[in-house]
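Worked problem 6 (solution included).
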Amino acid sequence: MSEVRPSILFICYGNIMRSAFAETCFRAEVAVNPRLRDIRFASAGVRAYPEEAAETNARRMAVKFGLNLDRHRATRMSLELVRRYDRLYIMDELNEELLVGDFPEARPKLAYLSSLIPGAEKEIEDPYCRRDAELEACFRTIQMAVRSLAASL
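Solution. The predicted structure is:
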């Protein structure tokens, strides 16, 4: 009997920085770990503008991590996405408030992405319009959480 693998959705506010980076990090984990290849995953934003490109600084910072966000396009959260994915990893309390307000049935599927890192802060704060050092720290936290997630699957 084959193991049932969870489907994963990474969620932030606009899907142009944090969740986009998390999805790209997970894709990198899949590329080097064949046992992850059957896992469905994506990212979305609770208030995303559909098809918006990843934020310029996020694209630039991703390169420092050996990743590329140039092809990323934002997806807005929907009830269909809530129903399609088993695990919904959010970044902060605002994501939780908006997501549950829009889609109450999302609540049992929610988890903070940072919960995958022992001792981490509850939230991965939005680095939008912040300094490079803050953006890099944010992305480093996301990368650690995604690697922890990949190792647990």
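Discussion: The longest strand covers residues 8-12.
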